UniProtKB/TrEMBL annotation:
Pfam families: AA_kinase. This is Aspartokinase. GO terms for molecular function: aspartate kinase activity; ATP binding. ATP binds at residues 5-8. PANTHER family: ASPARTATE KINASE, ASPARTOKINASE.
Length: 419
Protein backbone atom coordinates (compact mmCIF):
# COMPACT_ATOMS: atom_id res chain seq x y z
CA UNK A 1 0.00 0.00 0.00
CA UNK A 2 1.00 3.60 -0.48
CA UNK A 3 0.60 6.82 1.46
CA UNK A 4 -0.03 10.17 -0.23
CA UNK A 5 0.18 13.54 1.46
CA UNK A 6 -1.34 16.65 -0.06
CA UNK A 7 -0.33 20.00 1.41
CA UNK A 8 -2.49 23.08 1.86
CA UNK A 9 -1.64 24.46 -1.58
CA UNK A 10 -3.04 21.39 -3.30
CA UNK A 11 -6.56 21.81 -1.89
CA UNK A 12 -6.77 25.57 -2.05
CA UNK A 13 -9.27 26.00 -4.89
CA UNK A 14 -12.00 24.05 -6.67
CA UNK A 15 -9.69 23.49 -9.59
CA UNK A 16 -6.92 22.08 -7.37
CA UNK A 17 -9.28 19.83 -5.44
CA UNK A 18 -10.42 18.44 -8.79
CA UNK A 19 -6.80 17.80 -9.74
CA UNK A 20 -6.21 15.89 -6.51
CA UNK A 21 -9.37 13.89 -7.18
CA UNK A 22 -8.14 12.93 -10.61
CA UNK A 23 -4.81 11.78 -9.17
CA UNK A 24 -6.73 9.65 -6.67
CA UNK A 25 -9.00 8.30 -9.38
CA UNK A 26 -5.89 6.88 -11.03
CA UNK A 27 -5.40 4.70 -7.93
CA UNK A 28 -8.94 3.40 -7.64
CA UNK A 29 -9.09 -0.07 -6.18
CA UNK A 30 -5.55 0.09 -4.76
CA UNK A 31 -4.99 0.38 -1.00
CA UNK A 32 -4.15 4.02 -0.33
CA UNK A 33 -3.98 6.33 2.69
CA UNK A 34 -4.34 10.01 1.82
CA UNK A 35 -3.25 12.59 4.40
CA UNK A 36 -4.41 16.15 3.75
CA UNK A 37 -3.50 19.53 5.31
CA UNK A 38 -5.79 22.49 5.88
CA UNK A 39 -6.62 24.54 2.78
CA UNK A 40 -4.04 27.21 1.88
CA UNK A 41 -3.38 29.56 4.78
CA UNK A 42 -6.31 28.35 6.89
CA UNK A 43 -4.10 27.37 9.82
CA UNK A 44 -2.72 30.93 10.04
CA UNK A 45 -6.24 32.34 9.86
CA UNK A 46 -7.45 30.00 12.59
CA UNK A 47 -4.50 31.06 14.75
CA UNK A 48 -5.85 34.62 14.54
CA UNK A 49 -9.28 33.39 15.65
CA UNK A 50 -7.70 31.66 18.65
CA UNK A 51 -5.71 34.76 19.57
CA UNK A 52 -8.73 37.09 19.39
CA UNK A 53 -10.80 34.66 21.44
CA UNK A 54 -8.11 34.37 24.07
CA UNK A 55 -7.75 38.15 24.32
CA UNK A 56 -11.46 38.19 25.16
CA UNK A 57 -12.48 39.70 21.81
CA UNK A 58 -15.27 37.26 21.04
CA UNK A 59 -16.91 39.40 18.36
CA UNK A 60 -13.64 39.78 16.46
CA UNK A 61 -12.99 36.04 16.74
CA UNK A 62 -16.44 35.28 15.33
CA UNK A 63 -15.92 37.72 12.47
CA UNK A 64 -12.61 36.17 11.55
CA UNK A 65 -14.17 32.75 11.74
CA UNK A 66 -17.04 33.88 9.52
CA UNK A 67 -14.55 34.63 6.74
CA UNK A 68 -13.06 31.13 7.07
CA UNK A 69 -16.55 29.60 6.89
CA UNK A 70 -17.36 31.63 3.78
CA UNK A 71 -14.20 30.54 2.00
CA UNK A 72 -14.87 26.85 2.69
CA UNK A 73 -18.54 27.07 1.76
CA UNK A 74 -17.79 28.91 -1.47
CA UNK A 75 -15.37 26.21 -2.56
CA UNK A 76 -17.76 23.50 -1.48
CA UNK A 77 -20.67 25.00 -3.39
CA UNK A 78 -18.56 25.50 -6.48
CA UNK A 79 -17.56 21.83 -6.35
CA UNK A 80 -20.96 20.42 -5.57
CA UNK A 81 -23.58 22.47 -7.41
CA UNK A 82 -26.62 21.71 -5.26
CA UNK A 83 -24.63 22.12 -2.03
CA UNK A 84 -25.81 18.72 -0.79
CA UNK A 85 -23.88 17.46 2.20
CA UNK A 86 -23.11 20.98 3.45
CA UNK A 87 -24.35 19.92 6.88
CA UNK A 88 -21.07 18.06 7.43
CA UNK A 89 -19.24 21.38 7.28
CA UNK A 90 -21.89 23.19 9.27
CA UNK A 91 -21.54 20.67 12.12
CA UNK A 92 -17.81 21.40 12.27
CA UNK A 93 -18.38 25.17 12.20
CA UNK A 94 -20.89 24.87 15.03
CA UNK A 95 -18.37 23.13 17.29
CA UNK A 96 -15.97 26.05 16.99
CA UNK A 97 -18.70 28.66 17.36
CA UNK A 98 -19.90 27.12 20.60
CA UNK A 99 -16.41 27.32 21.95
CA UNK A 100 -16.03 30.94 20.81
CA UNK A 101 -19.10 31.89 22.83
CA UNK A 102 -17.42 30.63 26.02
CA UNK A 103 -14.91 32.51 28.10
CA UNK A 104 -11.35 31.19 28.16
CA UNK A 105 -10.56 29.58 31.49
CA UNK A 106 -7.74 27.25 30.47
CA UNK A 107 -4.34 27.86 28.91
CA UNK A 108 -4.01 29.38 25.46
CA UNK A 109 -2.42 26.32 23.84
CA UNK A 110 -5.46 24.21 24.71
CA UNK A 111 -7.85 26.60 22.93
CA UNK A 112 -5.45 26.96 20.05
CA UNK A 113 -5.67 23.23 19.35
CA UNK A 114 -9.47 23.01 19.75
CA UNK A 115 -9.87 25.81 17.18
CA UNK A 116 -7.01 25.17 14.78
CA UNK A 117 -7.73 21.45 14.30
CA UNK A 118 -10.88 22.36 12.41
CA UNK A 119 -8.78 23.32 9.35
CA UNK A 120 -7.85 19.73 8.53
CA UNK A 121 -11.31 18.42 9.44
CA UNK A 122 -12.84 20.86 6.94
CA UNK A 123 -10.40 20.27 4.09
CA UNK A 124 -10.71 16.48 4.34
CA UNK A 125 -14.50 16.67 4.57
CA UNK A 126 -14.65 18.78 1.42
CA UNK A 127 -12.32 16.42 -0.39
CA UNK A 128 -14.26 13.38 0.72
CA UNK A 129 -17.65 14.85 -0.25
CA UNK A 130 -16.27 15.84 -3.63
CA UNK A 131 -14.81 12.38 -4.29
CA UNK A 132 -18.19 10.91 -3.43
CA UNK A 133 -19.90 13.37 -5.79
CA UNK A 134 -17.43 12.48 -8.56
CA UNK A 135 -18.01 8.75 -8.08
CA UNK A 136 -14.52 8.05 -6.68
CA UNK A 137 -14.96 5.75 -3.69
CA UNK A 138 -13.11 6.79 -0.54
CA UNK A 139 -13.61 6.62 3.20
CA UNK A 140 -13.18 9.50 5.64
CA UNK A 141 -11.68 8.55 8.99
CA UNK A 142 -11.23 10.86 11.97
CA UNK A 143 -7.49 10.55 12.61
CA UNK A 144 -8.07 11.63 16.23
CA UNK A 145 -9.46 8.13 16.87
CA UNK A 146 -6.05 6.70 15.97
CA UNK A 147 -3.39 9.24 16.84
CA UNK A 148 -3.72 9.42 20.59
CA UNK A 149 -1.34 11.97 22.08
CA UNK A 150 -0.30 13.39 25.39
CA UNK A 151 -1.70 16.77 26.46
CA UNK A 152 1.28 18.73 25.13
CA UNK A 153 -1.01 21.08 23.25
CA UNK A 154 0.47 22.63 20.08
CA UNK A 155 3.33 20.13 20.15
CA UNK A 156 1.72 16.90 21.23
CA UNK A 157 3.59 13.60 21.29
CA UNK A 158 1.91 10.64 19.61
CA UNK A 159 1.47 7.38 21.51
CA UNK A 160 2.84 5.16 18.78
CA UNK A 161 1.85 1.91 20.42
CA UNK A 162 -1.77 2.98 20.69
CA UNK A 163 -1.66 4.32 17.15
CA UNK A 164 -0.26 1.03 15.85
CA UNK A 165 -3.04 -0.99 17.48
CA UNK A 166 -5.81 1.32 16.25
CA UNK A 167 -4.32 1.49 12.77
CA UNK A 168 -4.42 -2.27 12.61
CA UNK A 169 -7.96 -2.41 13.95
CA UNK A 170 -9.48 0.44 11.95
CA UNK A 171 -7.44 0.85 8.78
CA UNK A 172 -5.84 -2.47 7.87
CA UNK A 173 -9.15 -4.29 7.14
CA UNK A 174 -10.21 -1.46 4.83
CA UNK A 175 -6.87 -1.40 3.04
CA UNK A 176 -7.04 -5.15 2.54
CA UNK A 177 -10.19 -4.48 0.55
CA UNK A 178 -8.31 -2.00 -1.62
CA UNK A 179 -9.96 1.11 -0.23
CA UNK A 180 -8.81 4.72 -0.30
CA UNK A 181 -8.80 6.31 3.16
CA UNK A 182 -8.80 10.07 3.72
CA UNK A 183 -7.13 11.27 6.94
CA UNK A 184 -6.36 14.66 8.46
CA UNK A 185 -2.73 15.65 8.86
CA UNK A 186 -1.34 17.54 11.86
CA UNK A 187 -3.98 16.63 14.47
CA UNK A 188 -4.56 14.05 17.18
CA UNK A 189 -6.45 13.76 20.47
CA UNK A 190 -5.81 12.98 24.10
CA UNK A 191 -7.37 10.05 25.96
CA UNK A 192 -9.98 12.60 27.17
CA UNK A 193 -10.88 13.36 23.54
CA UNK A 194 -9.42 16.82 23.57
CA UNK A 195 -8.00 17.74 20.18
CA UNK A 196 -4.27 18.31 19.91
CA UNK A 197 -1.88 19.40 17.16
CA UNK A 198 1.57 18.05 16.37
CA UNK A 199 3.44 21.30 15.63
CA UNK A 200 3.25 23.56 12.57
CA UNK A 201 3.72 21.82 9.22
CA UNK A 202 2.98 18.56 11.03
CA UNK A 203 1.05 16.87 8.22
CA UNK A 204 4.21 15.44 6.67
CA UNK A 205 4.88 13.83 10.03
CA UNK A 206 1.38 12.33 10.16
CA UNK A 207 1.95 10.83 6.72
CA UNK A 208 5.30 9.42 7.82
CA UNK A 209 3.76 7.81 10.92
CA UNK A 210 1.13 6.01 8.86
CA UNK A 211 3.71 4.95 6.29
CA UNK A 212 5.70 3.41 9.12
CA UNK A 213 2.75 1.78 10.90
CA UNK A 214 1.35 0.30 7.71
CA UNK A 215 4.71 -0.64 6.22
CA UNK A 216 3.92 1.37 3.09
CA UNK A 217 5.84 0.66 -0.10
CA UNK A 218 6.34 4.42 -0.44
CA UNK A 219 5.20 7.83 0.73
CA UNK A 220 4.48 10.50 -1.85
CA UNK A 221 4.38 14.15 -0.79
CA UNK A 222 2.49 16.11 -3.45
CA UNK A 223 3.51 19.76 -3.70
CA UNK A 224 3.12 22.76 -5.98
CA UNK A 225 6.81 22.60 -6.93
CA UNK A 226 8.51 20.18 -9.31
CA UNK A 227 10.42 18.39 -6.55
CA UNK A 228 13.15 19.17 -4.04
CA UNK A 229 15.27 21.96 -5.47
CA UNK A 230 18.95 22.64 -4.76
CA UNK A 231 18.16 26.28 -3.89
CA UNK A 232 15.18 28.55 -3.38
CA UNK A 233 14.04 29.37 -6.94
CA UNK A 234 12.79 32.76 -5.71
CA UNK A 235 16.39 33.67 -4.83
CA UNK A 236 18.37 31.74 -7.44
CA UNK A 237 17.15 31.64 -11.01
CA UNK A 238 19.36 28.63 -11.80
CA UNK A 239 17.78 26.48 -9.09
CA UNK A 240 17.18 22.93 -10.32
CA UNK A 241 15.26 19.87 -9.22
CA UNK A 242 17.37 17.18 -7.54
CA UNK A 243 16.19 13.84 -8.97
CA UNK A 244 17.53 11.68 -6.15
CA UNK A 245 18.49 12.28 -2.53
CA UNK A 246 18.95 10.25 0.60
CA UNK A 247 17.60 10.79 4.10
CA UNK A 248 20.90 11.99 5.52
CA UNK A 249 21.10 14.68 2.88
CA UNK A 250 17.53 15.80 3.57
CA UNK A 251 18.16 16.00 7.32
CA UNK A 252 21.28 18.05 6.65
CA UNK A 253 19.37 20.39 4.32
CA UNK A 254 16.56 20.83 6.84
CA UNK A 255 19.07 21.51 9.64
CA UNK A 256 20.75 24.27 7.67
CA UNK A 257 17.39 25.88 7.05
CA UNK A 258 16.07 24.55 3.73
CA UNK A 259 12.31 24.31 3.78
CA UNK A 260 12.22 20.88 2.21
CA UNK A 261 10.38 18.47 4.40
CA UNK A 262 9.54 18.60 8.07
CA UNK A 263 12.61 17.09 9.81
CA UNK A 264 10.43 14.89 12.05
CA UNK A 265 9.23 13.10 8.91
CA UNK A 266 12.45 11.31 8.20
CA UNK A 267 12.85 9.02 11.20
CA UNK A 268 9.64 6.97 10.82
CA UNK A 269 10.48 6.42 7.15
CA UNK A 270 14.15 5.70 7.57
CA UNK A 271 13.45 3.17 10.35
CA UNK A 272 11.54 1.03 7.89
CA UNK A 273 13.51 1.93 4.75
CA UNK A 274 10.44 3.44 3.13
CA UNK A 275 11.25 5.57 0.10
CA UNK A 276 9.67 8.98 -0.25
CA UNK A 277 8.71 10.76 -3.46
CA UNK A 278 8.22 14.50 -3.72
CA UNK A 279 6.02 15.16 -6.73
CA UNK A 280 4.14 18.02 -8.34
CA UNK A 281 0.35 17.77 -8.26
CA UNK A 282 0.15 20.39 -11.01
CA UNK A 283 1.97 18.04 -13.38
CA UNK A 284 1.94 14.40 -12.25
CA UNK A 285 3.86 13.41 -15.37
CA UNK A 286 7.04 14.96 -13.87
CA UNK A 287 9.33 12.51 -12.07
CA UNK A 288 9.94 14.74 -8.99
CA UNK A 289 12.49 13.73 -6.36
CA UNK A 290 13.07 10.27 -4.93
CA UNK A 291 14.46 10.09 -1.39
CA UNK A 292 15.77 6.81 0.00
CA UNK A 293 18.45 5.50 2.32
CA UNK A 294 21.07 4.46 -0.24
CA UNK A 295 24.17 6.50 -1.06
CA UNK A 296 23.63 9.08 -3.79
CA UNK A 297 26.55 10.26 -5.87
CA UNK A 298 27.18 13.45 -7.82
CA UNK A 299 24.74 15.76 -6.12
CA UNK A 300 24.60 19.35 -7.35
CA UNK A 301 25.63 22.08 -4.92
CA UNK A 302 22.80 22.65 -2.44
CA UNK A 303 22.47 26.28 -1.39
CA UNK A 304 20.67 27.38 1.74
CA UNK A 305 20.38 30.95 2.97
CA UNK A 306 19.23 31.53 6.52
CA UNK A 307 18.26 35.08 7.45
CA UNK A 308 17.80 36.67 10.90
CA UNK A 309 21.02 35.30 12.30
CA UNK A 310 22.71 36.66 15.36
CA UNK A 311 26.38 36.34 16.25
CA UNK A 312 27.31 36.17 19.91
CA UNK A 313 30.90 37.01 20.47
CA UNK A 314 31.95 35.43 23.76
CA UNK A 315 35.27 36.34 25.33
CA UNK A 316 36.55 34.87 28.55
CA UNK A 317 37.09 37.58 31.14
CA UNK A 318 40.27 36.42 32.80
CA UNK A 319 42.29 35.08 29.88
CA UNK A 320 41.31 31.52 30.79
CA UNK A 321 40.77 29.31 27.76
CA UNK A 322 37.27 29.77 26.39
CA UNK A 323 36.91 26.02 25.86
CA UNK A 324 36.81 25.55 29.62
CA UNK A 325 33.34 27.10 29.56
CA UNK A 326 32.13 25.19 26.50
CA UNK A 327 30.28 22.61 28.59
CA UNK A 328 28.40 25.34 30.46
CA UNK A 329 27.57 27.01 27.16
CA UNK A 330 26.08 23.84 25.65
CA UNK A 331 24.03 23.34 28.80
CA UNK A 332 22.68 26.86 28.44
CA UNK A 333 21.73 26.25 24.82
CA UNK A 334 19.94 23.08 25.79
CA UNK A 335 18.09 24.69 28.69
CA UNK A 336 16.95 27.61 26.55
CA UNK A 337 16.05 25.33 23.61
CA UNK A 338 18.37 27.21 21.31
CA UNK A 339 20.02 25.32 18.47
CA UNK A 340 23.52 26.48 17.55
CA UNK A 341 23.88 27.01 13.80
CA UNK A 342 27.62 27.54 13.95
CA UNK A 343 30.18 27.52 16.76
CA UNK A 344 33.83 28.39 16.50
CA UNK A 345 36.20 27.98 19.37
CA UNK A 346 39.36 30.09 19.75
CA UNK A 347 41.84 30.54 22.60
CA UNK A 348 39.86 33.00 24.65
CA UNK A 349 36.81 33.51 22.44
CA UNK A 350 33.87 31.51 21.23
CA UNK A 351 31.77 32.69 18.32
CA UNK A 352 28.24 31.43 18.36
CA UNK A 353 25.70 31.91 15.61
CA UNK A 354 22.02 31.19 16.30
CA UNK A 355 18.61 32.14 14.86
CA UNK A 356 17.58 35.48 16.29
CA UNK A 357 14.57 34.76 18.42
CA UNK A 358 14.28 38.16 20.07
CA UNK A 359 13.67 37.79 23.75
CA UNK A 360 15.20 34.33 23.88
CA UNK A 361 18.40 35.66 22.33
CA UNK A 362 18.50 38.32 25.05
CA UNK A 363 18.15 35.64 27.70
CA UNK A 364 20.94 33.61 26.13
CA UNK A 365 23.27 36.62 26.02
CA UNK A 366 22.35 37.47 29.58
CA UNK A 367 23.02 33.95 30.86
CA UNK A 368 26.30 33.64 28.92
CA UNK A 369 27.55 36.82 30.54
CA UNK A 370 28.04 34.78 33.71
CA UNK A 371 31.17 33.36 32.05
CA UNK A 372 32.05 35.72 29.22
CA UNK A 373 32.09 39.27 28.03
CA UNK A 374 29.31 39.13 25.48
CA UNK A 375 28.75 41.24 22.41
CA UNK A 376 25.90 40.68 20.01
CA UNK A 377 25.51 41.43 16.31
CA UNK A 378 22.12 40.97 14.69
CA UNK A 379 20.72 41.04 11.17
CA UNK A 380 23.19 38.58 9.65
CA UNK A 381 22.77 35.89 7.00
CA UNK A 382 24.14 32.38 7.14
CA UNK A 383 25.01 30.85 3.80
CA UNK A 384 25.45 27.09 3.67
CA UNK A 385 26.58 25.23 0.58
CA UNK A 386 26.69 21.44 0.54
CA UNK A 387 28.84 19.90 -2.21
CA UNK A 388 30.37 23.31 -2.79
CA UNK A 389 32.96 24.53 -5.19
CA UNK A 390 35.08 27.61 -4.56
CA UNK A 391 33.82 29.47 -7.62
CA UNK A 392 30.26 29.25 -6.40
CA UNK A 393 31.27 30.30 -2.90
CA UNK A 394 33.02 33.40 -4.29
CA UNK A 395 30.01 34.37 -6.39
CA UNK A 396 27.53 33.95 -3.59
CA UNK A 397 29.49 35.93 -1.01
CA UNK A 398 30.52 38.80 -3.27
CA UNK A 399 29.96 42.28 -1.86
CA UNK A 400 29.23 41.02 1.67
CA UNK A 401 31.49 41.00 4.71
CA UNK A 402 32.42 37.44 5.69
CA UNK A 403 32.38 37.36 9.45
CA UNK A 404 32.94 33.69 10.02
CA UNK A 405 33.63 30.65 7.89
CA UNK A 406 33.62 26.95 8.60
CA UNK A 407 34.11 24.11 6.21
CA UNK A 408 34.36 20.37 5.92
CA UNK A 409 34.94 18.29 2.83
CA UNK A 410 31.22 18.41 2.13
CA UNK A 411 29.85 21.61 3.59
CA UNK A 412 30.93 25.21 3.76
CA UNK A 413 29.18 27.82 5.90
CA UNK A 414 29.81 31.53 5.86
CA UNK A 415 28.20 34.09 8.10
CA UNK A 416 27.61 37.27 6.15
CA UNK A 417 26.97 40.92 6.90
CA UNK A 418 25.29 42.29 3.81
CA UNK A 419 26.28 45.74 2.61
N1 LIG B 1 -2.00 22.89 8.44
C1 LIG B 1 -0.86 22.78 9.28
C2 LIG B 1 0.06 23.97 9.14
O1 LIG B 1 -0.19 24.81 8.27
C3 LIG B 1 -0.13 21.50 9.10
C4 LIG B 1 0.52 21.31 7.75
O2 LIG B 1 0.17 22.00 6.79
O3 LIG B 1 1.38 20.46 7.63
O4 LIG B 1 1.00 24.08 9.86
MG1 LIG C 1 1.20 23.31 4.97
Amino acid sequence: MQVFKFGGASVNSTERIQRVASILEGHKGQPLVVVISAMGKTTNELEKVAEAFYRGHAAEALDLFEAIKRKHLDIYNALIGDGRGQEYLVDLFTEVEWLLHDRPVREYDYYYDQIVCIGELLSTTIMHRYLDHAGIPALWVDVRDILRTDAGFRDATVDLEYAAAETKRLLTPLLEKGRTIILQGFIGATAENESTTLGREGSDYTAAIFSNLLGATSLTIWKDVEGVMNADPKLFSEAQVIPELNYTEVIEMAYYGAQVIHPKTIKPLQNKHIPMHVRCFLDPSLPGTLIHDQPVHSLPPVIVLKQHQVLLHLKSRDFSFAGAHAGALYTLLKDLHVQPNLIQNGAITIQLCVDDRGERTERLAQAASAFFDVSVERGLTLLTIRHYNTGLLETLTEGATRLLRQQTAETVQVLLRKA
